[in-house]
Structures are given as C-alpha cells and as structure tokens.
Amino acid sequence: MNKPADLRIARSVCPHDCPSTCALDVEIIDGRTIGRVRGAKDDPYTAGVICEKVARYAERIHHPRRLLQPLRRVGEKGEGQWAEIGWDEAFDEIVARFEAIAAEHGPEAIWPYYYAGTMGHVHRDGLSRLRHAKGYSLQYDTICTGTSWPGYIAGTGLLTGPNPEQMAESDVVVIWGTNPVHTQVNVMTHAIRARKERGARIVVVDIYRTATMEQADLGLMLRPGTDGALALGVMHVLLRDGLADRAFLASHTDFDAEIEAHLMEKTPDWASAITGLPVGEIEAFARLVGENPRSFFRLGYGFTRQRNGSTNMHAALCIPAVTGAWRHRGGGAFHSNSGSWALDKSIITGPELATPGVRSLDMSEIGAVLTGDPAALRNGPPVKALFIQNTNPVSVAPDQTRTREGFSRPDLFTVVHEQFMTETAEMADIVLPATMFLEHNDYYTRSGHNRVLFGPALLPAPGAARSNFDVVNELARRLGVSHPSLAMTDREMAAETFRRSGYPALESWEAEGYLDRARPDPETRFADGFAWPDKRFRFRPDWEATRIRRDLKWVCDPAEMPALVDYWPINEQATPETPFRLATSPARAFLNSTFTETPGSQKRHGTPTVFIRPDDAAACGIVDGAPVTLGNHRGTVELTARFFDGLQQGVLIAESIHPNKAHRGGRGINTLIGADPAPPFGGAAFHDASVWIRPSVQS
Ligand SMILES: Nc1nc2c(c(=O)[nH]1)N[C@H]1C(S)=C(S)[C@@H](COP(=O)(O)OP(=O)(O)OC[C@H]3O[C@@H](n4cnc5c(=O)[nH]c(N)nc54)[C@H](O)[C@@H]3O)O[C@H]1N2
Ligand SMILES: Nc1nc2c(c(=O)[nH]1)N[C@H]1C(S)=C(S)[C@@H](COP(=O)(O)OP(=O)(O)OC[C@H]3O[C@@H](n4cnc5c(=O)[nH]c(N)nc54)[C@H](O)[C@@H]3O)O[C@H]1N2
Ligand code: SF4
Ligand SMILES: [Mo]
C-alpha cells in the first residue's frame, strides 16, 4: 500500500485508566483520520511498546457506532428508542429538570458521577467544579484505589516510590497482585530488560497462572486474599535465617521486639496452610529476596480488591523494609506515584465554590444509593438526577442487580455524556456525544512513572460531539454559575494548573510533550526517612493517619483492624452452599468496559468464560465448553466453562468485564460481586466473592 501523501506522525498520550499512560505516536492521514498508533520510542518508560487495544485505536475512534448527536429517550427506560435533538434543546431540558429537582428535594438530590474514562485532569475532574458551585452531592471515589492506597501509605506515609524504570537495574523483580501483560504492559518491558541485561529473576504472585506468571522464574499461585499470610511467612524466614537488614530496621522503621515476636509466630507452615503454597516455595521466595536486597516490589491493585486488601498491601510492603531493599538502586517498592505531583488543581475542581457539609456518596455503592438505602444515602434525600461522564456503572459497578434496578427507576432523571451507547447510556433520559482524546487538549499524570504529559487536540470533533470541559462549562453557565474557567479553553485550564502549581509554563514544554517530575533518587527511596513525623516506616500502622481526604469515612470499627502488620481473615468465605472463590480479573483486550465495542477486542475474547480446574469441574458434572451458571445470594450469571489447570482447587476466574448483555440471561459478572465497603475507608472487593457453579439448565 502506498503511503498517503499527507500522512504525518503526531505525539499524543493514551488517556485510558492504566498506570502506564503511554506516550503515543499517532499516524494522522488526512487531518481527520488516524492510521497506526505506536508507542513512543524516545519515551524511556513507554520505550516503543503499547498494548494491542490502543495500537488499533482507529477501530475505536472511527467506529461506526460512535455517538454523534444528543439524544432524548422516547420509549420506556432502557427500551432503546431515541430521538436526535440539538444541544440547545438538551441543555434546556437538563437545566429545567435540575432546577426543579433542586427546588423540590434540595441540590443534594442531584449526583454528578464520574470516573476515569479519560485520565486527562481537565476533562476528568471538571465535573467537580459544577458540583461544588451548585451544592450537588459529592462523590466518594472508592471503586479502584480505595483499599490499595491506604495500605501503601500505612507503611511509607506517602504514595510514591523509586522510578519504575529502575526495575531494569534489579536483581529480583517481584510483580505482586498485578497482571501487567494485561493491565500495564510497560512493567514487563523493564522487568524483562533486567533479566536480559543482568540475569534478574522475576517473581509473580497471583491467584492464577496469568500470562505474566507464564514469564516468571518463580510463580506463587496462592489462594485469593491470603497475601498477608504469605508476607508474614516470608518475613519470618528472613528474620529466622539472618536475612533481615537489622541496621535498616533500627534506623528507618518502627520494628521492635513485639513485632519480631509476632512475626516469629507466623511460620512457613502456618502461611502454607492459609495460602495453599508449599512451604518450599515460601522459603525459596524469602531466600531470593533476602539474599538479593536489590529487589523491586511492584505492588499492583489486583490483590487489594479483597476485603482485607489494605492489610495485604501493607504486609507485602513490609518485606522490602525487612530486607532493606529501599537502600539499593533497583530496590524498594512501588505502587503509584499519585501522591507525588503536588498539583494545585483548583481551577479545574473549584474547591472554593464548595458548600461545607454537603454529603458524599460512595460511588461503589451506587446500587444502594439509587435504590434508596438510607445508610448509603447518609440519611439524606433520595438521588433524583444523575449526570454521568467517563464511566459505565451499569457494567462496571458491583452489586449489578441493585445498580440496574436503581437505573430503571422511572422517577430518576439520568444524563449520560459518552462516546458510545454503553449499558449506562442505554438507561439514560438524555445522551450527549463526547469527544475522544485526540479531539481535545489535556494533560495526564503517569501514576506508574514520573512524567506529566500533554496531549493536544489533533483532530476535529466528529458530528456534534463536545468535550467534557465544554459541556460542564455550558451547563454551569446556564445554571447561573460564575467562575474564571468559563472564559477559558481546555488548553488554558491545563496551563493555569501548571502556573498555580509552580510548574514550568506549558508553552515551554508542550512541543516536547512531557515534563519529567522525577525527584532525587534518595528521596524516592526515603533515604532520609519515611513520610511519617518520626520518619520511620511503620510495621504498626496508624490507619487513621492514612485518611488522606477528609471525606473518607471509616467503614469498620478502627479498633478491629490489626494493630501490627498481619493477615486479617475477613474475606467472603467459601461455604457448603457457595464452595468456590471467584475473582473477576481484567481481560487483556478490554479496559474495564472500554474496548468491548471494538471488533478486535470482541474477536479476542468471544463469549464470557470462567476458568475452572478439570478436577473441580468433574466434581460438579461440568464439561469443557459447557454452559454453566454461577450464583450466590446476590444473583446468578451464565458463562461458558473453560478448563484450566493454573488455579488452586476451589478457585474460579472470570476475566472481565463483558457487558451484561454479552451473557446468556443478560446478567454480567458484577451481579455476583458485593458493594459492601472494604476497610478502612471503602472500596470494592471485585476479586473476593464466594459462589456455587453448576451446569446450566438448558431451556
Ligand atoms: N487490559 C486491561 N488493562 C487494564 C484494565 C483492564 O480492565 N484491562 N484495567 C485498568 C485499571 S482501571 C486498573 S486499576 C489497572 C489494574 O491493574 P492491576 O494492578 O493489574 O490489578 P487487577 O488487574 O485488578 O488484578 C491484577 C491481578 O491480581 C490478581 N488477584 C486478584 N486477587 C488476588 C489476591 O488475593 N492475591 C493476589 N496475589 N493476586 C490477586 C488477579 O487475578 C489479577 O491477575 O489495570 C488497568 N489496565
Ligand atoms: N468485574 C470487575 N469489575 C470492575 C473491575 C474488575 O477488575 N472486575 N475493575 C474496577 C476498576 S479498577 C475500575 S477503575 C472501574 C472502571 O470503570 P469505568 O470507569 O466505568 O471504566 P470504563 O469501562 O473504561 O468506562 C469509562 C467510560 O468512559 C467513557 N469515556 C472515555 N473517555 C471519555 C471522555 O473523554 N468523555 C466522556 N464523557 N466519556 C469518556 C468510555 O467510553 C467508557 O464507556 O471498573 C471496576 N469494575
Ligand atoms: S498499555 Fe495502558 S497506557 Fe499504554 S496504550 Fe495500553 S492502555 Fe494505554
Ligand atoms: Mo481501576
């Protein structure tokens, strides 16, 4: 094929909710069409590698089913009958309904709801500005990071760590509770570099033999939710065998005789009985990281999507404190850099507009909120209107039965601003078409690394699509809000954020496309002390002090949480009625529910399946490829059984998230997942459910 004459390559940034935040080189063909998308070779973290789903982004951005016009529902809710309307008509209706609802029920009856469909801060977080200006209900963000962040902060005091590129300088890379081959491919680039260049060993800790574990030198396949026990067993061996860095423990941590005595009770035999791992594997792992203190612990989100996830994160994080890994380049631990940016985002979020005392509703509990649960509503008024951007709760939220029941309420006025007719948009009264990242300006912080990147508008918006920023501002104007942002462009919002934050001016770096915010290496490894007042890493967590936002609320009695690093068995238990433990680990070619609309991803994943061991299947009368039903007290879901031996007995994995309607019976996997908030401050335990499984009854 000839190269089109006007093809050019433009630099951009992947906007999706993935710690890699890849720098992209995008082929722009005629000023409106894209060709191939490649990972930028000159970006040290991206290093020329991106995932398959974004490489074929042309499928998504030029998808024939992209939303191009505002729509009003004409049939019954969810029936799929729409009339195209103009933007003016759409705004008039939204304003009239919002004003009427606020007058009758108070402004807290309106709940603007968003998550991270785009990770660009201007287009992701701007809805908060409108929320604050009008006194609408706040959103308490729990769905993703609710358990992992407190767990990490409990040890270090700050959500940051050494530059992840340093994995390439490690002797051992421990990939714990993340499946980067699916979820953040660049981790593999740097881990494999360490293996090639210095013979580093790769350890993977997961609950099934993932594509990442396939590449490991040591794969630890434990029972779901038992990582705390593994960590304690490892620390026991380190202390027992003289592999602890006693000097580091004394100078940099709160380690003392009480903690040592506690760990000396947690033998490898004890850990083996809980985790299901052979004692030999626990010992081997301990020796590997003990004898190679230049070990990098890359701690993921996945293993914290358990009811005891925050304590498991803390326990895993304690291992490098015992080995003194933090002292060495290529050593230490990393979860996210989200605590390190020191950005003043006030022009975007408008905190000065906020009314004190407005209630904050837990986004993971959207089903309970919409079905009128008084506790979920914080004993306030019912939610009568939703304004949704950047998220698809009717596929991704836990407790789908109640979530869908709530969205079906005839008296609920729902506006969804989307790129596609998602399962959430299908339940709306008004659907608004949204731009994609190549059609607007925004900046992105890379949680898995140190860079801030700028993605410029490169293409015109298709049809009548408008950006999140634009729509929020227009709505604010029509609702009588005044704010400096209303006179600005999205690019100016980014520039103003950097100005307020004391960053170099956007003009000075936008041509290059990034700003490196790497901090001095010793600081990232807490050489002069951890971020607690006494500068000591904590084996004895003060959970209250991990409450980094005032609206975070305790969901358990603080006294119930273990006082010392520990394994805390509060997960959903297998019972005679529900003998299997189910996890809903992310699929490779979907990103949450995004890309479920693209042909390439649909082809890769086909119909929703559940991995089951052949021996478990035989005991349940299930054959490979057969239709099966999974159930618990929350509901039932239909899947196809797929035999797989890379699991412990009694564990099932359903890679997610297929749309509800991709399942026979129309109920998706999150029907089985609870929305009860996980300690200390809430979060959804997506990989922590107990279920039964049986052959489906064919009708
Ligand atoms: N392809 C793809 N990429 C994605 C996403 C996606 O859906 N698909 N989602 C994006 C988002 S929003 C996020 S937050 C990140 C999350 O990315 P990750 O940090 O990788 O987290 P998860 O993908 O939830 O889970 C990772 C692994 O944890 C395992 N796991 C579950 N329970 C346990 C446990 O108790 N112990 C241990 N050791 N492992 C356990 C799961 O089986 C899974 O293999 O990925 C992002 N990238
Ligand atoms: N079973 C199961 N469920 C899970 C998880 C799991 O591991 N298993 N993971 C959970 C996690 S970690 C997360 S973070 C949540 C994420 O759940 P969501 O935040 O809902 O993630 P996405 O499905 O990617 O939905 C983002 C939506 O935003 C839209 N979007 C993208 N860019 C824009 C934009 O610029 N403007 C507008 N208006 N819309 C845009 C996309 O089209 C997409 O429909 O899912 C959770 N649900
Ligand atoms: S790996 Fe993550 S950041 Fe990189 S292109 Fe894929 S989804 Fe985007
Ligand atoms: Mo997430």
Summarize the SSE layout with pairings.
Blueprint: E1 8-13, E2 23-28, E3 34-39, H1 52-55, H2 58-61, E4 71-73, E5 82-84, H3 87-105, E6 110-114, H4 121-125, H5 127-134, E7 138-140, H6 148-156, E8 172-176, H7 180-183, H8 186-198, E9 201-206, E10 218-221, H9 227-240, H10 246-252, H11 257-264, H12 268-275, H13 279-291, E11 295-299, H14 309-323, E12 332-334, H15 346-349, E13 360-362, H16 366-370, E14 385-389, H17 393-396, H18 400-407, E15 413-418, E16 430-433, E17 442-445, E18 451-455, H19 468-478, H20 490-500, E19 514-516, H21 521-524, E20 580-583, H22 599-605, E21 609-612, H23 614-620, E22 627-632, E23 635-643, E24 651-653, E25 689-695
Protein name: Molybdopterin oxidoreductase family protein
Domain 4Fe-4S Mo/W bis-MGD-type: 7-65
GO molecular function, one term: oxidoreductase activity
Quick recap:
This protein is of the alpha/beta class.
If you consult CATH, what is the topology of the largest domain? Rossmann fold
What is the helix tally?
23
Tell me the overall shape.
globular
Task: Name the structural class.
Answer: alpha/beta
The CATH architecture of the largest domain is 3-Layer(aba) Sandwich
Strand order of the largest sheet: 5-4-16-15-14-6
- Classify the beta-strand content into a percent band: 15-25%
**How many strands, which pairing sense, and closed or not: the largest β-sheet?**
6 strands, mixed
The overall average pLDDT, rounded, is 97
